[in-house]
Amino acid sequence: MNLKFLGAAGQVTGSCYYLEGPGVRLLVDCGLHQEREFLDRNWDPFPFDPQSLDAVLLTHVHLDHSGLLPRLVREGFSRPIISTGASLDLLPIVLLDSAHLQEEDAAYKQKRHAREGRKGPHPEVPLYTVEDARRVMPLVRAAAYEEPVPLAGGLVAVLHDAGHILGSAMVELIVPEDKSEFHVLFSGDIGQPDKPIVRDPSVFARADDVIMESTYGDRNHEDPMNVEDMLADVINRTVRAEGKVVIPTFAMERAQDLLFLLSRLLRQKRIPPVPVFLDSPMAVDITAVFEKHPEVMDQETQDMIRAGGHPFSFPGLHLVKTTEESKAINSVKGPGLIMAGSGMCQGGRIKHHLIQNIGRSENTILFVGFQARGTLGRQILEGKSMVRIHGMNFSVGARIARIQGFSAHADKRGLLAWAGHFQKPPRRLFLVHGEPEATESLAAFIRDNWHWTVEVPGRLGQWTL
Hints:
The protein is an alpha/beta fold and 465 residues long. The chain is built from 13 helices and 22 strands.
């Protein structure tokens, strides 16, 4: 069995792993490259024939894991895409939104480049279209957690709860080998324990080869018990200044985590009742899917629902879907809170809210998620005094704040705790899905302290399993 790393190797995004063995060709994930320096990779030809694949195993629906599926299907893939039931319901929302943005961005670039008399590095056409995204949906097949799924070549896949976002999975591949078998484990994105809504990540006693994420491999989050205090402090400080809190929000999980905590803070009277706008049609639709799948939520959230509480609703909350409703937020005077996508400020409605709010000292731009290198969110977070949005320069006058404890990724402590459940070292631990500094830091720690064989693959690196 050969394993080739097509993305999330030497970078955070673009998760995609190609496996080929006797009678079987598989992908685990098929994600977008989202770092600015790697965007061209989304247009590269696939280094395999999409028609030859037997299946795609999807860890979860974040675009850096699922966002190239429409291209894959357009270029000939027609076999099953295996995911959890929650991911099956979430995927059309995520991919259709992405396709709409691809079409919208291409149209905007056509106009801007024509006005400026220049051309970009790629044709001014979308990477894929809404119709391409729609063609993905009939191929998706749901599998329950812990359910063995037979594959070509005698392989069996088992999905385990990753505790990252609703429906997220770790993929275990059981590969026949002579009279025995070996286990290949893809961690996907490993969640934090004791997070709202989702359950804790699965742990394992054995695996032969492990492909493990390393997003926060070089640092730890703040104490998650302090996240509510920090959120309340940011809101209260900004409200006293008569300003607005603007939160670039990932529509998946982060928006729902925020609604959950805001609801609790308001019930406890720890923040004042101010208008709260969830300005993301996708986040609104995703919240409805969350309500449909209480069976994969943690015990606290299930108990709240049974007791008649609503984890995603409270007085003063406005769920914004139309463009007109979004524009109307600009006319709301006084303090408030605006959550809008995208989470790294790379597109979507957050850019318009930044234009309106980033220059005003009474406002706060609050980051609650990872900001990949080269993204607009990373530029703001790193303290640039001037940023470019929609082709224009804007001074940064707002207060910039960050709460890392919201992260849906395990930090260094969490990653080591997860790996520490193996009763004996795997043959090899492959570290992926991290910026080079984070990945190398974690690799060095595990090599030096645990004496494991740790590989840090580069893109297109290949190993025999």
